[in-house]
Design a protein that fits this description.
The chain has 4 domains: 111 residues, Beta-Lactamase; 80 residues, Methane Monooxygenase Hydroxylase, Chain G, domain 1; 161 residues, Histidine kinase-like ATPase, C-terminal domain (Heat Shock Protein 90, 2-Layer Sandwich); 84 residues, no CATH class. It contains 15 helices and 14 strands. It binds adenosine-5'-diphosphate.
Length: 476
């Protein structure tokens, strides 16, 4: 080894503080200097007789007494095996540089990357086995759900057949129970399938043109009987400024609404259920719709609200015992709504009711000129609601007539209900309707209607109640 001058001693000290191994060698590969890391990592006591080709045989060799390097000394990172003095080896990354100092030769800087490489290999193996596992899981879920569907539909078909022939009420009741269990089982199978697809990110939404009018009508028909059977009122309101023809995934939108309405019906025993659709934004051909499903049911405590949209989550075990369900519906709804560019949330008060609301972005076909106003389904049972949404149609009612007074009172009642439910957007719509219905009235009445609207806009419950009273007094 070369004699060390003071400068070199200093350089050596610095070299010894490095985390990387550092070896200096001449153009014959003979090692002139190595730092402590190099000695330790390569397990050498002395390198006086060692050639760099002994340590990195994959990079350097001596052929016919001539030292050869496979790579130029340009500082590029090279991966190669490093051999210890005991002939064991490890994976390393090295750089070879020319020593620009007076002594000339080369400098090799390197590090042991065997730990990192091993980790990468283990990670890759874990990823592969994870991917295989998730593939197996997907296939398993798809097969099991498919296999389950066949016998369930078999039972369903046969039981329907039996029911059409059965006269005995007791037997019919039992059969109805079987039929309902089959329907529940089918719903559960569909939920599991959707859930696993959504989880795996394999869910694709359909983009098709559909009629909002028909979709809402279908959803309404789906739930109206069950809701009425429970003695509840059912109101459906669609803002007249929403185009009827839209482009999006009608079935999945329907699925979310069905889930929310089934829950509303399930958890409400007195009062009413309302479905309202309004538009909240429009950007080019895109339109944002905002759906609200409001009920006057058992409500949800603040502490439980966060749990609702998580997998298999029910507020507590007693809920599933009493009302059934798997706790998957809201989770799936949230995922679907997110896929449609929106979000879902809930406002609720225990004992008072809940307002589940969500937004989605849909497209409006270019040709769409017709609005929702006139072709909305006219069902005698919801004529009052239709009037509610189609405010302009009632504007002909002259202020002061019995009809006009009745219309105002109807809207005030609905407004009061919205205030109780904290659905201020909707309350504002009714306040607006009241204001419109008082056009042509004496100044004190129009001012009272305006005050009411302002109180509602400010979401001030006390002022709203006061304004309603004041208006009512003027109308008597
Ligand atoms: P499930 O299939 O159990 O109904 P969901 O995800 O649809 O699953 O609902 C999860 C839980 O959220 C319900 O079990 C219930 O505790 C609560 N919940 C949902 N909707 C309502 C509602 N309208 N009123 C009160 N609680 C509700």
């Amino acid at each position: 080894m070369e004699q060390l001058s003071e400068n070199r001693l200093y350089a050596r000290k610095i070299a010894d503080t490095l985390f990387e191994l550092l070896i200096k060698f001449n153009s014959s590969g003979e090692i002139g200097f190595a730092n402590e890391v190099a000695y330790n990592v390569l397990m050498y006591n002395s390198m006086e007789e060692t050639n760099i080709a002994d340590i990195f045989p994959g990079m350097f060799m001596i052929e016919d007494g001539k030292f050869i390097s496979r790579e130029p000394a340009d500082g590029r990172m090279i991966s190669t095996n490093a051999y210890r003095s005991n002939n064991t080896c490890f994976e390393s990354e090295i750089r070879i540089l020319k020593d620009e100092g007076p002594a000339g030769g080369y400098i090799l800087v390197g590090r042991d990357v065997s730990g990192r490489e091993r980790m990468m290999r283990e990670l890759k193996a874990a990823q592969n086995s994870g991917e295989t596992l998730s593939k197996v899981k997907d296939e398993f879920v798809a097969t099991v759900t498919h296999e389950l569907r066949t016998p369930v539909n078999g039972i369903l078909g046969n039981i329907k057949d039996l029911m059409s022939k059965e006269q005995d009420p007791d037997a019919l009741y039992t059969m109805e129970m079987i039929e309902k269990s089959c329907a529940d089982m089918n719903a559960l199978i569909n939920n599991i399938l959707d859930f696993s697809k959504l989880e795996a990110g394999k869910f694709e939404l359909e983009e098709r043109e559909f009629s909002l009018h028909n979709m809402i009508d279908y959803v309404k028909r789906n739930h109206v009987n069950k809701i009425r059977e429970k003695g509840l009122d059912f109101f459906v309101t669609v803002s007249p400024d929403i185009p009827d023809r839209l482009v999006g995934d009608e079935l999945r939108l329907e699925q979310v609404l069905n889930n929310l309405l089934s829950n509303a019906a399930k958890f409400t025993t007195v009062g009413k259920i309302m479905l309202e659709v309004v538009t909240t934004a429009r950007a080019g051909e895109k339109i944002e719709l905002f759906f609200m499903v409001v009920d006057t049911g058992i409500g949800i405590a603040d502490k439980d609200k966060d749990k609702l949209f998580k997998d298999f989550s029910q507020v507590d075990a007693s809920i599933s015992r009493k009302y059934g369900g798997t706790g998957l519906g809201l989770n799936i709804s949230k995922k679907l709504v997110n896929l449609m560019g929106g979000d879902i949330s809930v406002d609720s008060m225990p004992g008072k009711g809940s307002n589940f609301n969500f937004s989605v972005w849909l497209s409006v076909p270019r040709s769409e000129g017709d609005m929702f106003v006139d072709d909305f389904h006219v069902d005698p049972e919801t004529i009052a609601d239709r009037q509610m949404q189609n405010i302009t149609a009632d504007m002909s009612t002259t202020f002061g007539s019995a009809e006009n007074r009745e219309e105002i009172e109807k809207r005030i009642m609905k407004l009061t209900l919205c205030v109780e439910m904290d659905t201020w957007d909707k309350a504002e719509m009714f306040a607006d309707a009241v204001k419109q219905l008082t056009i042509g009235a004496p100044k004190e009445v129009t001012t009272a209607a305006l005050r009411l609207k302002m109180a509602v806009q400010k979401e001030n419950r006390e002022k709203t109640v006061e304004s309603i009273e004041a208006l009512r007094l003027l109308l008597v």
